[in-house]
Amino acid sequence: YGAGKLAGEQAVLAASPRNLVLRTSWLFGPHPTQTKSYIHTVLRLAGSGAVLKATSDQLAAPTYAPDLAGWTWSLLRQDASGLFHAVNDEGLSRYDWTLGILEAARECGLLANLPAVESVTTAYFTPRMRRPGYTVLGNGKLAGRLNRSCGSWRVGLRNMLAADWPR
Length: 167
Fold this sequence. Notes:
Layout: H1 2-15, E1 20-23, E2 27-28, H2 38-48, E3 52-55, E4 59-60, E5 63-64, H3 65-77, E6 82-85, E7 92-93, H4 94-107, E8 117-120, H5 140-146, H6 153-164
Parallel strand pairs: 1-6, 2-5, 3-8
Antiparallel strand pairs: 4-7
Helix pairs in contact: 2-4, 4-6
């Protein structure tokens, strides 16, 4: 799974010492027409009354797209180069992220009741592609370069739901 990504990163970095590569994970954010994101799926299922199933053995750091755009712009203005892990603070499992999404939706008035969420392993979904279970990226290098924290995905999620969610 990661071999192709790594080869692409290495090729970009080898092409010029001025090139910039940003690794990110679990990207989410507002979009005028996109309704197939993980967040949309969770909230659609929550509204259906179904018991949600989310993996407890896949861990990463969600990344709010407007934050990623801001970091990218800042790095370009600084003429930064090299490889940076560009993710929000706090890695967690898909299960815990699902709980966070539901709680934020409740706080924003999008859900009256929280549905049940069952913790399952990745094998439950019989995936066609094997992925590593732990892919939490450390954003310390990016935070150091920006001279500030990369911020919480929770803030980005609340912003997305409060401002951009269809009601």
